[in-house]
């Protein structure tokens, strides 16, 4: 019996989906390949074998045939190219990343080809709100699929509410490579450096974070650095919030960064601020932002909210402080409380390093994922 697993994604690979790369590159007993339509950042995430439609040679007739069918709306690439890859590689496990990909792969599930689908956030929130037939599509997936993986118990409840039997749901934590992160504990003698990370979308709570920082730090030795770029908000909108709060000179926008530069920001901050909340559109953090894991692995305390599965990742009072989503006053008080006690900040940082090594390191989680595959066969 072979041990082949195909990981299916739309794009290989957005910077925000490094957790997929961790599993791809850390299989021990399964031979992985990745299949998708588009590619990006392949220089950062080198991996083969890749079966990416847009990487097909332009002389390949399938590129033009499948592309024309998709452009004309006759058949999507996932109805032409993906079945071809499945026929040729015939994996024992199809691992779909994000719910809509699981829907696309459901027709190709077989007794000897199991389907695993990982849900991450928008696919159980915004997608369901915006797509009228999403629940119907998901019901087919839940009927035909073999296993649905989520990041934590809050996400498990969402998927179950969508119609997935509880017996088919498993919790598989987001994985990071802690060996790439050297802890550097907070040093506030020279001032406080607070970090926020994410696209400028409502669920990230950036306006709340800026206002809370302004309320907590009126002095000049505090800096708020914001890594990310436009989404629902433009940078100038967030800059106006900072200007109206008289902290414009204390706020630095870095834009989107390469992964190593982003990790450097995490490494050099004193505290991570992650004011996540439910967006008006229904968009939600699926589990918890990956930056929460990398910040704790870097030895940094976290001020965040009880939104989604964040309490499953951050231990309130031990590795950070959590407040109700959208409560700017509580966020401000948490920042003040945390930074007023440098010894406590270091204690939280050390507890976070330990927690991440035990619960989220890829060396711990990759074998657990392969064990889940084993149990399906």
UniProtKB/TrEMBL annotation:
InterPro entries cross-referenced by the UniProt entry: Glyco_trans_1 (IPR001296)
Protein name: Glycosyltransferase
EC identifiers of the protein: 2.4.-.-
Signal peptide span: none
Keyword Transferase: yes
Top enzyme category: transferase
Keywords noted in UniProt: Glycosyltransferase, Transferase
The keyword Glycosyltransferase is assigned to this record: yes
Organism field: Halobacterium litoreum
Record-annotated Glycosyl transferase family domain positions: 189-354
Domain of life (superkingdom): Archaea
Pfam family, one: Glycos_transf_1
GO molecular function, one term: glycosyltransferase activity
């Amino acid at each position: 019996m072979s041990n082949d697993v195909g990981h299916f994604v739309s794009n290989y690979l957005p910077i925000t989906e490094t957790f997929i790369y961790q599993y791809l590159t850390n299989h021990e007993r399964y031979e992985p390949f990745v299949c998708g339509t588009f590619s990006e950042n392949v220089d950062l995430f080198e991996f083969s074998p890749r079966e990416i439609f847009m990487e097909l040679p332009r002389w390949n007739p399938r590129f033009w045939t499948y592309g024309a069918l998709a452009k004309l709306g006759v058949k999507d690439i996932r109805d032409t190219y993906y079945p071809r890859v499945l026929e040729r590689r015939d994996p024992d496990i199809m691992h779909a990343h994000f719910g809509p990909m699981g829907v696309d792969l459901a027709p190709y599930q077989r007794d000897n080809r199991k389907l695993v689908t990982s849900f991450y956030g928008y696919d159980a929130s915004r997608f369901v709100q915006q797509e009228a037939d999403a629940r119907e599509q998901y019901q087919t997936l839940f009927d035909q699929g073999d296993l649905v993986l989520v990041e934590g118990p809050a996400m498990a409840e969402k998927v179950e509410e969508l119609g997935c039997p509880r017996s088919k749901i498993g919790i598989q934590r987001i994985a990071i490579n802690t060996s790439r992160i050297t802890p550097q504990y907070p040093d506030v003698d020279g001032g406080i450096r607070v970090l926020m990370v994410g696209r400028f979308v409502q669920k990230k709570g950036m306006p709340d974070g800026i206002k809370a920082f302004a309320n907590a730090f009126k002095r000049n030795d505090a800096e708020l650095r914001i890594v990310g770029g436009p989404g629902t908000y433009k940078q100038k909108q967030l800059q106006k919030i900072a200007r109206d709060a008289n902290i414009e000179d204390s706020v630095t926008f870095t834009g989107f960064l390469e992964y190593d530069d982003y990790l450097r920001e995490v490494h050099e901050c004193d505290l991570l601020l992650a004011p996540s909340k439910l967006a008006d559109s229904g968009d939600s953090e699926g589990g918890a932002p990956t930056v929460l894991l990398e910040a704790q692995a870097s030895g940094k305390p976290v001020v965040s909210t009880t939104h989604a599965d964040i309490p499953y990742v951050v231990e309130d009072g031990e590795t950070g402080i959590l407040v109700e989503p959208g409560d700017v006053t509580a966020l401000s008080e948490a920042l003040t409380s945390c930074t007023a006690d440098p010894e406590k900040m270091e204690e939280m940082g050390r507890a976070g390093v330990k927690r991440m090594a035990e619960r989220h390191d890829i060396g711990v989680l990759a074998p657990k994922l392969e064990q889940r595959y084993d149990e399906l066969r």
